[in-house]
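Section handout, structural biology tutorial.
Before the tutorial, make sure you can parse a SMILES string by hand: atoms, branches in parentheses, ring closures as digits. In the record below the ligand is NAP, and the chain has 423 residues. In the tutorial you will relate the predicted structure tokens back to the input. Do not try to memorize them.
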Amino acid sequence: MTTCPTKTVLIDKHSAISAMKLMVDKYSIQFPTHKPCENPTSVHHDTLVITGTTGSLGAALLAELMVAPNVAHIYAINRKSQKPLLERQMEAFQRMGLANAVIQPSTNVTFIEANMQEENLGLEPEILHKIRKSATHIIHNAWPVNFNLSLQFFDQNVRSLRNLIDLALSSHHASPPRLIFISSVGVLRHACPSLPVKEGPVDPEIAVGSGYSESKWVAEKLLDEAASRSALRPLVVRVGQLSGSRSGAWKETEWFPSLIQSSVYLKCFPAVDKEISWLPTEDAARALVETKNTDVRYLHLAHPHPVNWSTIANPIATELDLPLVPYTEWLSLLTKSRKGLESKIEQEVVKVNSALKLLDFFTQISLAPESREMAMPRLDLSQARSNSPALNEVKPLSADIALKWISYWRHSGFLPLDSAVLS
Ligand SMILES: NC(=O)c1ccc[n+]([C@@H]2O[C@H](COP(=O)([O-])OP(=O)(O)OC[C@H]3O[C@@H](n4cnc5c(N)ncnc54)[C@H](OP(=O)(O)O)[C@@H]3O)[C@@H](O)[C@H]2O)c1
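Predicted structure of the complex:
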């Protein structure tokens, strides 16, 4: 695939691409040979290892797997924190409004705090043995979702992925567990917008430009290398924009919630003639669970029935009592809102005008007519759609869900309860 010829050439593009390739090389050294045990038992049930279940998609995935047919056991691996993991997990379920996800003593989940950067994830030998003996799938979902970090910051996450590759290859089964990597549409940031991007590998030129997208490309490429040099069977799932949970819960640190908060601050809401194909988190989780046994190597997950931006923008603008203005005008007001601020004051302003933190992201959104989607390329979903019946049945986004987001952010304190408060 080639980059779109109309894209601006980044000055440091070549050194960024070299850094991406170097990171792939660094973690591609000597993949272990998979040696099944002499009499591998036949597998009748799925046993899954999943990382990052305290996050939005991870919590929804865990909730889906807990009730999925044929799942014997789940190992939920998360990093350490001051609060006990079980407490954090219940908070995540509650925050997401996942009322059916209840953890009881009989629940088929083992919660594990681990340091994934350590060899064997630093797991106790007994747990490690159980995983090697039973795991049929590893879903690697944990990743920092932060567009402001450099590629070097993500080195530790790529190291964790390598450790998971090694764990998969140490399986006692006849073939190693499927390693499902949750990638991002961000990898396709420079894909030509006029054509839907196929579900397959891309060149580094497509992903370069942000540490987050570069790191996801490095991870995809590392898995390709492992697949060509070992028995590993990876599946890369490029997730498009998720639109929070069906209850309306949507993490405030993401770009769209930031756009909403800044719109209240700037007293106007951006209008664009673009489509959105955002997928509710639970629908993405269900599609992922349905596709976990597919033979394909790459999948794209996005809403199969896009709607126009106005479907959500109009009810939100009305609810927040904001006039709609062209996107360029909104962006110019956002840019001006930073000017002349001293750094101490800027930190205060950013708390109520959080899109400022993502100014580069908002500046780079393409308004060219050939970019049909808002802040995302068009995705070919053929492989995902033919493997997930649930994906084909997802309801289109509507004013209803948009108003649930607003209600959630008002209750969380991210938006003022009354939009008149800031006027
Ligand atoms: N949200 C989207 O629209 C979107 C779109 C495309 C792809 N994705 C991908 O989907 C996955 C989940 O995203 P999300 O929206 O659910 O994000 P999230 O709510 O921020 O959750 C991220 C999860 O990863 C864990 N994590 C973050 N940094 C980590 C680190 N350095 N070491 C170990 N664990 C770490 C978090 O643990 P703590 O709870 O301890 O912080 C949390 O469990 C990510 O791989 C992301 O790239 C998301």
